[in-house]
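Q: What changes when zinc ion is included in the input?
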Amino acid sequence: MKWKTKAILGLSFLTTFFSRYNFWRKKEIGVSVLLYHRLSKQKTYTNLDKFSIDSKNFYYHMDYLKQMGYKTVNVENLEECEGKCVCITFDDGYKDNMYAYPVLKKYGYTATFFVVTDWIEKGKSPCGLKMMSWEDIKFLKKSGFEIGSHSLSHKKLPLLSIEDKKKELSNSKKIIEEKIKSPVFSFSYPYGAWDDESKKTVKEYYKKALVIKQKTYIKNDDAFLVPRAVMRKNTDMVDFYLLLTRGRSRI
Ligand SMILES: [Zn+2]
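A: The predicted holo structure follows.
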């Protein structure tokens, strides 16, 4: 092989590797906010499968955090965490999220669960997945976890009228508060979708709101656009390390 061919091959390997694993990014000092959806290998043949991780991997993630000396914090108290700190969140409220309970307890960790109230009421998601019951949610709250709202019906807020936005935000909050007998402070935008009007309306009811963005949360960042990294089926331990230290793992 000619040296020119070798050089081109070497360069393309390095480009591919460092696009996939962004070791070159500067280390960030903020809190990594992680977004989990499902902890299951069961397929739905929908887009959601990309965001379903094996429950074993969730265990490895928590074990790694403990070994590396990370603490966890709920969304509500995000600013109060000093040092190596991670915020673990779950969206939608799938029944398989209950697998997280013994794992989190084992390591003394906390998490915030964002639920879609219509889906909880019905007991299943639009693609037929079993949801947590209100008993599960009350149990998590009593065990020290935070419960947040992920809206009434999981619609993209920017597509709704102001009246419908208010309904999605205030009714879901009211329903959860009545069930858990405790105030709800945090909201997670369905699909991470927001615009100025959604953000302004969220501020009327909540103290914090979360979007989807690979970046760490640094004190005094916008509390209504808290960035979260989505955990995917193909998020491996190298990605996990990069998300914790750089807030982003790939281009
Ligand atoms: Zn969702």
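Observations recorded in class: The first helix runs from residue 3 to 20.
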